[in-house]
Amino acid sequence: MADLIGYGRQFYATKNYKVALLFFTKVMTSCACARGVERERCTCKNFEKVAAQGGSIFREAMYTCHCDVGTMFSKCDDVYHIQALDFRAATFEALGELDHAMKDAEWILELAPRLPDGYLRVGKIARLKNNDEYAWKMYTAGIEANKESSVDSSPKLQQHHDARKHRNGCFFKQDPISLLAELVTDIFSYLKWTEILPCRRVCKQWMRTLTSPLHGPLWRNLIFPDKDNYDIKPKGSPYLPLLKKISSWAGNGGFRKIVIPRVLDLTQDEFTLLLKESPSLEHLEVLTLIDLSFPSEEKIWNQLRHVTIDDYFNSLNHNTMDLSGEFPYRFLQNAASSLENLTFTGIPQQWYYSEPLIPHLPKVKCLRIGGWWDNVTLFPMFPLSIAFPRIEQLWIGPQLPNLDMGPVALWRDKWEGVWPHLKVLIFDASSVDDVNKIPVSGLRQLMCLNRGTSLLHLAFIHFYLDSDEQMHDIFGNDHDTLAHSDVARHSDFRNLRSVRSDSGMWILPDRARTLLSNSIEDRQLTSFDIVFPERFFRSLPEDSSVCHLKGYDWLRGSPSIHTLGFFGFLFPLNPQSDEDLPLPQFLATFPNLRTLRLNNFYYRNHQNEFASLILAIMSVTHLKTIWIYQHSFRRRSKAMRKVRIAAQSKGVQISLAGDYGLQQWPMKLGS
């Protein structure tokens, strides 16, 4: 039989396929399994149908037979019989007779379902017939039939794995619920809980799996969407039954994060359930307190680190605290052992008293407070420092209070050592109605705590002070001398990393030099925004932007600077020399400058000139990113298109920004 196969292969090699078929057929009929009679193929098996239905190809080959073939003939794994069928199928392939080739390949499966040969040949022919999915399933069946054998035990088994691997991306479909529990949790963690809820309806197995204790983490972040357009309960029905179920699915400790938007109309029972069933709560945001009160007796929240409450608390009565819509004094006090980040809008009037009623929260590091009663009534700052002794990041606003720091003579002794770790200070005046009434004296003193040595980041948001004929900044008007002020005599700012402004708060160059010289000398300052005085002042000359920038010559070449912002400038539109357009040469002196922020409404009607300025900047710098205020160019501006083309050729990313404000709170602090 080996000789017959050898002759057949020789004729196959010379493309004498008809003669080759005769030799391969002779081998098949000579096998002992035929018992001296002609052995026919079983036609009961339908491998392709079984594969399409997700059934077992191996079981189909092994057991399915309703005709006499199964009773007359046994299985056969004779090596010559299998080789002859395989070579004959290959010969039919060469002749283009794929249907005949497939019959012989499936005959191999019928004879020897535990060998890889039949699966390989059927898979190859299926690919030739452009039935890749059937081929993939056949390779998979071959691997499963030989799962007790190692991959390297047979070259043909290795071929199975290689052939299937190339098609896994298209056809490797598996119910995700049947995967390892860790993988199921990871897959569904990309969905919101409101998106996971409908997934329970797929089938009972999905329901049992998704709500099992193993997958409790999927339900522990209860973030309600901003818009009530999701299908999580019948319209008009209460949340209480659903919340009880989800709380049980979350497992021990209940929810870890709860975010309640303004549009969500929770009842008091529902709100209380959320909190009391979540002793392991870590993050809580409540954006409305209308008709809601916090639990005030329980002391179970010893893992709560972040609380945000956005509402107004204007009651003058001590007894109304912790009632519906009022400041949750006792709730916060009961969470004092873990609370690190507190944000709320609406300062309770009780905090203005000579002996204010403020919860003592010794572990709070990040405090963001706004919504002051007014900017006239003095707010006592020292009691706040006692209530929050470990503040590292402080955001005051969106309204600015009239801070009462006490008389200057007493202030130095009284405030010595207060907030020694204050690293971030943000003044937010975005909701101040009358910019002339921003109470800057208290803010100025706040900047000088501990002589400013701990301060790393200083930011001013919508801090516009130039609204009349007198030019002034947070440090005084244009006739003040910083060197003789209390701020200069008692501040160091040696560790400042950044001074940010979103185009409103400008500083006279000499004052900025006094404030920043130490941090520049120590190579600490990395980011600085230069804001130019607004041009409606009659006292400003035409070349005011040139003069203002020249005042910052002391900043040139600072190696630690990697980000600079320029706001409100207007240089001569027809520059005759570099002196008329000094910004590009100014920026070229910074060896490590990588990011530039530009915001200028003056160039709105001079877009070509603004584009020329940006092109000149890119030609002399090594910038990676340029942020441009989105209204600096009109839509579909040709000038902007020119800038983008030039930026792409230089590897500079152009980004349009609607707001230069801080993108993250609390700020991430480096080492």
From TrEMBL:
Q: Which residues form the F-box domain?
A: 182-222
Q: Which SUPFAM superfamilies match?
A: F-box domain, TPR-like
Highest taxon of source: Eukaryota
Q: Which Pfam families match?
A: F-box-like
Signal peptide extent: none
Name of the protein this chain belongs to:
F-box domain-containing protein
Tell me what organism the protein belongs to.
Answer: Claviceps purpurea (strain 20.1)
Print the organism lineage: Eukaryota, Fungi, Dikarya, Ascomycota, Pezizomycotina
